[in-house]
Amino acid sequence: MGVLPLRAAGAEKTKIGIVGSGRVGGAIGAVWVKAGHEVMFSSRNIEHDKALAARLGAGARAGTPREAAAFGEVVMISVPYGSLRDVGKDLGDLIKGKVVIDTCNPFPGRDGEIATWAREKGAGLASAELLPGARLVRAFNAIGAARMGSAHEAPGRVGMPIAGDDAQAIAVASRLIRDIGYEPVLIGGLVMGKYLMPGTALAGERTAEEIRKIAATLN
Ligand SMILES: NC(=O)c1ccc[n+]([C@@H]2O[C@H](COP(=O)([O-])OP(=O)(O)OC[C@H]3O[C@@H](n4cnc5c(N)ncnc54)[C@H](OP(=O)(O)O)[C@@H]3O)[C@@H](O)[C@H]2O)c1
């Protein structure tokens, strides 16, 4: 598999642990591998993750969620919101102090009561409560998984709205987002994470400029 020409030569190779290797985790993880990062995929189905890693070749590996959380300098959590409390409990000691990218969206129909609570609180603040101590950045929340692995075909054309409270975590996540072709746009702190969901004004594929204009109208 060729390495994407996205990461500048000599740019930092990062170890990324992915918890939830479904449509989103699989797609984003695959392009991070192509971009030259080291990615460990995990879920509750190690056979699925081993097969995924084998397809992606060097740079990809499989492990348990705890192994992925320990492996990653950065961890991306991409599970149904209904699993997020368990994931927070299972991985709490490992993700404390780590940069964690949260793609998870609460849908009451799929996830039950926790999604209703998360929507009332706002998804960014709710995820922070479920993943205490993680240096959380919300990203990849409102673009369809089928398109997620294609931004590198026209680097910088599609903006990626993100939200977080930790400047260093935002910088790290922004670099990884740029590495796979998106232009990250910080729309605010985790309190603004409630806008990073399907069905909001920021959902869908937009340029960075469009995202900035829309974000300026939100509070
Ligand atoms: N699909 C989209 O277009 C899209 C776009 C943006 C954001 N999102 C959000 O991103 C998250 C992931 O979406 P998705 O479409 O990728 O879902 P998905 O295809 O159903 O994948 C979910 C992954 O999480 C794993 N998982 C579930 N519970 C787990 C647990 N307790 N511990 C470890 N792994 C667990 C699943 O594997 P096992 O069940 O085998 O463990 C699977 O690998 C969701 O919150 C979704 O709302 C989705």
Note down, in words, how this protein is organized.
The protein has 219 residues and is an alpha/beta fold. It has a single domain (15-215), classed as Rossmann fold (3-Layer(aba) Sandwich). Helices cover 40% and strands 17% of the residues. It contains 10 helices and 8 strands. The chain is globular and about 45 Å long. The termini are far apart. The site of NADP nicotinamide-adenine-dinucleotide phosphate (NAP) has 25 residues, from α1 and α4.
Question: In CATH, what is the class?
Answer: Alpha Beta
Distance between the termini: 43 Å
Our count of domains comes out at 1
CATH homologous superfamily grouping: NAD(P)-binding Rossmann-like Domain
The amount of helix comes to 40-55%
Question: Nutshell version of this structure?
Answer:
The chain is α/β, with parallel strands linked by helices. Helices cover 40% and strands 17% of the residues. It has helices at residues 23-34, 46-56, 65-71, 84-95, 108-111, 113-121, 123-130, 145-148, 167-179, 208-215; strands at 15-19, 38-42, 60-62, 74-77, 99-102, 135-138, 159-164, 183-188.
Q: How does the SSE layout of this entry go?
A:
Layout lengths: L14 E5 L3 H12 L3 E5 L3 H11 L3 E3 L2 H7 L2 E4 L6 H12 L3 E4 L5 H4 L1 H9 L1 H8 L4 E4 L6 H4 L10 E6 L2 H13 L3 E6 L19 H8 L4
Parallel strand pairs: 1-2, 1-4, 2-3, 4-5, 5-6, 7-8
Antiparallel strand pairs: 6-7
Helix pairs in contact: 3-4, 6-7
This protein binds NADP nicotinamide-adenine-dinucleotide phosphate (NAP).
